[in-house]
Design a protein that fits this description.
By secondary structure, the chain is mainly alpha-helical. Helix content is 54%, strand content 8%. Keywords: 4Fe-4S, Iron, Iron-sulfur, Metal-binding, Mitochondrion.
């Protein structure tokens, strides 16, 4: 809607402080003539820059682009995160089991 860089940056910081791990950044598109006009169209390079910055801030996932919406690749992100957590849990259980066996020997 015309946010300034410092506003976007601060919003990303606030989201990280609140524990948010995934964020999507997209371009507002005027749905009809009776709706708010687009103040400016951001270049795709700006979206790439914001994605890099969000990841550097510690976001696990950032989808950023002119056509990105809040549900953009949400299922893929969820499954990837779920599978990584499942694998980490299995590895932790295996380490704990090995430590238990070693301790009882």
């Amino acid at each position: 809607l015309g946010e300034e860089e410092h506003e976007i940056r601060q919003t990303l910081r606030d989201l990280r402080t609140a524990g948010v791990s995934a964020v999507t950044l997209g371009q507002y598109l005027q749905p009809s003539r009776t709706r708010m006009k687009v103040s400016r169209y951001a270049h795709p390079d700006e979206f790439a820059m914001w994605e890099r910055e969000a990841l550097a801030m510690g976001f696990v996932y950032c989808a950023s682009g002119p056509m990105v919406r809040s549900s953009y690749r949400a299922g893929e992100y969820y499954l990837t995160k779920y599978l990584k957590q499942r694998d980490a849990d299995k590895a932790a259980a295996a380490i704990a089991a090995a430590a238990s066996v070693a301790a009882s020997s």
